[in-house]
From TrEMBL:
InterPro entries referenced in this protein's UniProt entry, alphabetically: EF-hand-dom_pair, TPP/p25
Gene from which this protein is expressed: TPPP2
Compositional bias annotation for Basic and acidic residues: 129-151
Region Disordered: start-end pairs: 121-170
GO biological process: microtubule bundle formation; microtubule polymerization; positive regulation of protein polymerization; regulation of flagellated sperm motility
Organism: Monodelphis domestica
Gene Ontology CC annotations of this record: cytosol; sperm flagellum
UniProt-annotated location(s): Cytoplasm
Key words, A-Z: Cytoplasm
Main subcellular localisation: cytoplasm
GO molecular function annotations of the record: tubulin binding
Family membership noted in the UniProt record: Belongs to the TPPP family.
Name of the featured protein: Tubulin polymerization promoting protein family member 2
């Protein structure tokens, strides 16, 4: 069971850290692991308890802990969470909570398509100059739909007699 818990540790250690090898976990990800695995419940074990235990087991100037230090932290929290069990049984119970858990992206913004949002983003209902920015399928035309294309002829746009000045002069 410890090997399954160790896999979970490595998943959380690498979560959101592109440069991480997954062998050491920062306090932020350690807290996330405790929360996602159900170790931190807000009653018996709070986020403050997790931070204190993390600081206690890490090396003096380190910013992260390895799997061995994580086991020490879990053992200490296990004694608090499972008071009726021996320290070793409590650690096994903590490992059981971690089995087959992976980081979950919580609080991620989802796209909303309710009420006015649909109406505002439906390009088929656009009018005027905004309508010119999209083709029939609703895909934007890019710069051609936005930018005014003008010639430096000296005539106002839309003038019907453009280019006829020299002919009238004669």
């Amino acid at each position: 069971m410890a090997s399954e818990a160790e896999k979970t540790f490595h998943h959380f250690a690498a979560y959101g850290e592109s440069s991480s090898s997954g062998n050491e976990i920062h306090n932020k990800n350690f807290s996330k692991m405790c929360k996602d695995c159900g170790i931190m419940d807000g009653k018996i074990i709070t986020s403050t308890d997790v931070d204190i235990v993390f600081s206690k087991v890490k090396k003096k100037n380190a910013r992260s802990i390895n799997w061995t230090e994580c086991q020490m932290a879990l053992k200490e929290m296990g004694q608090k969470k499972f008071k009726d069990k021996s320290p070793e049984e409590a650690l096994q119970s903590m490992f059981a909570l971690m089995v087959n858990k992976v980081p979950v992206a919580s609080g991620v913004t989802k796209t909303v398509a309710v009420g006015g949002v649909d109406r505002l983003t439906d390009t088929s209902k656009y009018t005027g100059s905004h309508k010119e920015r999209f083709d029939e399928s609703g895909k934007g035309k890019g710069k051609t739909g936005r930018e005014d294309t003008h010639e430096n002829t000296g005539y106002v746009g839309g003038y019907k007699g453009a280019g006829t000045y020299d002919q009238k002069k004669k």
